[in-house]
Amino acid sequence: MIRIIALLILVIPGFCAALGIKLMRDMMFGILQPPFIYLWTQFLTGFLLFAGGLFFVGGFIFYRDRKRNKVQKRFKRGA
């Protein structure tokens, strides 16, 4: 049960990042999606979704690797 919850915690930000890439791509081709009025707001929202998802997943992986001592010496706590 715990592994399923952990998987969901990683899948949801991954889905948001993928949606952000789609919104940015649609803006580059001039396709306006329904909840947005302007292309620049669509791009900004897509960028924020992508960056948020990327930072969350990256931070999770970094935290896990730090806990298992698989990072360089400069990234270890107390070093």
TrEMBL record:
Transmembrane segments: 36-63
Keyword Transmembrane helix: yes
Keywords recorded for this protein, A-Z: Membrane, Transmembrane, Transmembrane helix
Pfam short name (any one): DUF2627
InterPro entries according to UniProt: Uncharacterised_YqzF (IPR020138)
Stated name of the protein: DUF2627 domain-containing protein
Higher taxonomy: Bacteria, Bacillati, Bacillota, Bacilli, Bacillales
